[in-house]
Amino acid sequence: MWSFSNISTNIDEWLRSFLNPTWTMVAEMVIVGICVISLFAVLGLVLVLMERKVSAWIQIRLGPNRVGPKGILQSFADTLKLLVKEGMTPDGSDKFLFNFAPLLAIIVAMLLMAPIAFAKDFHMWDLNIGVLYVSAVSSISVISILMAGWASNNKYSLMGAMRSGAQIVSYELSAGLSILTIVVLCGSLNLNDIIQSQVDGWWIFKGHLPVLISFVIFIIAVTAETNRAPFDLAEAESELTAGFHTEYSGMKFALFFLAEYVNVFIVCAIGATLFLGGWMPFHIGNWTDFNHVMDYVPSSLWFFGKTFFLIFLIMWFRWTFPRLRIDQLLNLEWKYLLPISMVNILLVTLMAILGWHF
Amino acid sequence: MNDIHDISSASKAPGPRKASGFITYIRDVFYAVKSLLVGLRRTGYYFTHHKEIITQQYPDNRETLNLPERFKGEVVMPHDENNEHACTGCTACELACPNATIKIVTKFDLTPEGKKKKAIDKFVYHLELCTMCNLCVVACPTDAIKMAQTFEHSVFDRGQLTKILNKPGSKIREGVE
User: Fold this and answer.
1) ipTM greater than 0.85, yes or no?
2) What span, in angstroms and rounded, lies between the C-alpha atoms of A128 and A193?
């Protein structure tokens, strides 16, 4: 049967037939790199268009509808514009850091792709501490934002970067705690083990109310971590012009823009893996016929379907809720989300010990 | 307690906290989540129902364009079929205008009784200076001018934007004082 894992195995065998193992490894790494870069490009194009359409429909507008049929070529046109624009470096800026910050942002996004299972037996790196890796690497992205804000030598950029720092440091906690609930339940940090533990039902169904609460907290926290509205104080167009990327233009700006959307994709992929079963098909108890039909849907389709559902959810939040003030933002984290998720993780631990989940 | 509960204002809200802090806390969280869900439901309805679209695809729908009732495009002076207007030349609009958009040049007509009577010679209107504030229309005691809904005003020569609103040969309507 056609599947991503078959394709990767075939390519591996074909390469091994005429290369020694070391060169096979190198060739495979190059192929993976090209695949990740093209995935980035596709994600950037698709997600930008999706965001614009979703926002338009939510605000009773039409959205892009001029370039190409139904406006689907709009993001190609935008990308072309960004590619040919001049990438300016301001005079008073720290040149090296200024040019390095967008690269770091995109490198972090690329690193985060590594442990994600895109389909059945199809992932770049079967890492036994995948969850830890993701939460550790994702917090490096704040350094790229601080770097951009500092190097721009601009008050708006610096304020945006500082806000973003405060925000990511706080929300990392509740995101981590809500991820921990799933780790507690299945007893593994390996993302593939977590997916395997959901073969008889996704955690969001198996885990009752506590997992539902931690799912909601996870979604709120990752929205804050990716600096998207209602937590977009770091770029707050109306207050800080554009926050940390005020001084960026052309392709350097596009890299920040791309990194934001890729980060949204990644956190949604992690959310889908932890709570919605990754590439696991939707199964209901003993309905064998129904389960059989669901098995026919390719696992990659399940994965991308769930991920895009979560992305839609985050976009829905963005175009519904107004932006929080910085004090409201920190109140929400330290007075509400953190205590709730701490109590919640105790509940889940109790549940896991007593075996109350299915 | 009203339903719309902002999280931070709820936590800062003064007043008696007779109910233990914990109950208030739970209630705050409950109302916050509820009001967020109300908002999501509204936008979710808009997302799934595309019946009402407020976008005007302007150059394409010039014929069927729907301008809002209070849209103001330029000042005009309506004339009736006898080429008569209602402007007495009292210059109330000129005085009301905040940026000297209107300039009224008056002349003196002779009435049949041989008396001199003030009337307008030219009602000069500088569209390029006008901010469409509507104060002149409000100030006019005889309703001689009004706001029109035309809006495609671009020209290549700014001289064309200086308009004389009273038509040539027009005179004041009988009975308007």
Assistant:
1) no
2) 9
Domains by residue range for chain B, with CATH: 7-48 (no CATH), 74-170 (3.30.70.3270)
Euclidean distance between CA atoms A248 and A331, whole angstroms: 31
CA distance A268 to A278: 10
- Quickly count: other Cβ atoms within 10 Å of residue A33's Cβ: 12
Asked if A60 lies within 8 A of B47 by C-beta distance, the reply is no
pLDDT tens column, B58-111 = 888 888 887 888 888 889 998 888 888 888 888 888 899 998 899 988 888 777
Q: Closest chain B residue to A328 measured between Cα atoms? A: B8
What ranges in chain B are assigned the alpha helix state H? Answer: 7-12, 21-48, 92-96, 135-139
Inter-chain residue contact A320 with B7, CB threshold 8 Å: no
With b meaning 16 or more CB within 10 Å and e meaning fewer, what string describes A180-216? bbbbbbbebbbbbbbbebbeebbbbbbbbebbebbbe
pLDDT in tens, A129-180: 888 888 888 888 888 888 888 888 888 888 888 888 888 888 888 888 888 8
Spell out the long-range contacts of A67-70 with Cβ–Cβ below 8 A and sequence spacing 24 or more.
Answer: none
The model scores a pTM over 0.90: no
- Selected residues 144-163 of chain A with any CB under 8 Å from a CB in chain B: none
Question: A358: pLDDT confidence band, cut at 50, 70 and 90?
Answer: low
- What tokens were used for A120? 């059945």
Q: Is A95 left (phi over 0), alpha (psi -120 to 50) or beta?
A: alpha
Nearest residue in chain A measured CA to CA from B43: A58
Spell out which residues of chain A touch residue B57, defining contact as CB-CB under 8 Å: 62
How confident is residue A88, by pLDDT bands cut at 50, 70 and 90? confident
Residue A343 touches chain B, beta carbons under 8 Å: no
